[in-house]
Write a structure and sequence with these properties.
It is built from eleven helices and 17 strands. By secondary structure, the protein is an alpha/beta fold. The strands form three sheets. Strands 5, 6, 10, 11, 12, 13, 14 and 15 form an eight-stranded mixed sheet that branches. A six-stranded mixed sheet has the order 8-2-1-9-17-16, with helices on both faces. The two termini are 22 Å apart. Bound molecules: flavin-adenine dinucleotide. Flavin-adenine dinucleotide (FAD) binds next to helix 1, strand 3 and helix 11.
């Protein structure tokens, strides 16, 4: 089969690696518009169940991932000076950058063709010359929009604002800090991704976000890859008590609203949606990458 994959995120790359192993005769090409080492975000979390699935599907990918995992069991909720701990969960996490590297290397070793810094031809063009087109083109999927009549997507932009940041504070659990500020409740979702850092997501209701003055910083144009540094500086000050002198850094980080994506169908002729293009999972359950790969 000739297979075209639009998007070299975790979903597209993992699919390409597994499909090539099912039949090495498949000709598989992945188009990724970013450079190989360009990525947004920091860490991604996997549960023990998901890791079992990856180990079963491709032990080589699993082995490479297992070398870099941060592992922990607890979920700590910090609220009004108390910590409520729920144990025995079994989480592992790693940096998104390292995950993409592992998947890219595996694809190349198996003979998948990867085109970086290449906008893919449209799904319609690819469908005419390939047996199968996998549209793993992310939450804002152009393929989903192009064939909206078949996929019938429902996009639900939620009301909270959040920003995906990183810190060199290495948490020892999945951390939820509920902070009661003069402007209202703000929440931190923190989890380690390796021995050097943690993901640090700041989330709040839009009304709180406005009262805190973040809306005054909104509406600006950012260069590709740039972060909202003024907001990040304010986040550093607001959460200095949690950070204890550690830094907070951005990577293509801006205030956004989470969009729940649901589709009535994931297939249009020989074009199939995969990953965030087809469905999203809220970041608080740390499962978007898992769902894109499963
Ligand atoms: C704040 C935040 C925190 C998150 N935390 C977690 C977490 O802890 N754990 C977790 O599992 N998930 C998490 N997620 C979700 C996770 O990032 C996504 O679910 C996951 O990346 C989906 O993978 P994907 O391959 O479907 O899409 P993506 O990772 O979005 O990849 C799509 C790729 O397609 C490329 N592309 C798009 N259009 C084209 C085109 N026309 N031509 C070429 N390339 C194209 C894009 O450049 C991109 O690289 C989080 C998300 C957010 C926003």
């Amino acid at each position: 089969m000739r297979i075209a994959v639009i998007g070299g995120g975790p979903g597209g790359l993992y699919f390409a690696a597994l499909a090539k192993q099912l039949d090495p005769m498949h000709e598989i090409v992945v188009w990724e518009r970013n450079a190989a080492d360009d990525t947004f975000g920091f860490g991604v979390v996997f549960s023990d169940e998901t890791l079992g699935g990856i180990e079963h599907a491709d032990p080589a990918i699993y082995e490479a991932m297992a070398c870099t995992f941060a592992r922990w069991d607890d979920i700590d909720v910090h609220y009004r000076g108390e910590v409520v701990t729920s144990g025995g969960h079994g989480f592992a996490a790693m940096s998104r950058r390292r995950l993409l590297q592992i998947l890219q290397e595996r694809c190349m070793a198996l003979g998948v063709t990867l085109h970086f810094q290449n906008q893919a031809p449209s799904a319609g063009e690819l469908a005419a010359t390939h047996d199968l087109v996998v549209a793993a083109d992310g939450v804002n999927s152009a393929t989903r929009t192009e064939y909206a009549e078949t996929f019938r997507p429902a996009l639900d932009a939620r009301r909270c604002k959040f920003m995906w940041l990183g810190t060199d504070l290495v948490f020892d659990a999945f951390k939820f800090y509920i902070a009661e500020t003069p402007d209202g409740v703000m929440q931190i979702h923190g989890y380690p991704y390796d021995a050097t850092g943690s993901t640090f997501i700041v989330e709040m209701n839009t009304a709180v976000w406005k009262r805190a003055g973040f809306d005054a910083l909104a509406g600006r144009e950012f260069a590709p890859g740039a972060s909202d540094d003024e907001s990040i500086e304010r986040v550093r000050t607001l959460f200095a008590g949690i950070l204890g002198g550690h830094s907070v850094v951005g990577n293509n980080s801006r205030w956004i609203n989470f969009t729940t994506v649901r589709c009535a169908s994931w297939r249009h002729r020989n074009i199939v949606l995969l990953g965030d293009a087809a469905h999203t999972a809220h970041f608080s359950i740390g499962s978007g990458t898992k769902l894109a790969m499963e």
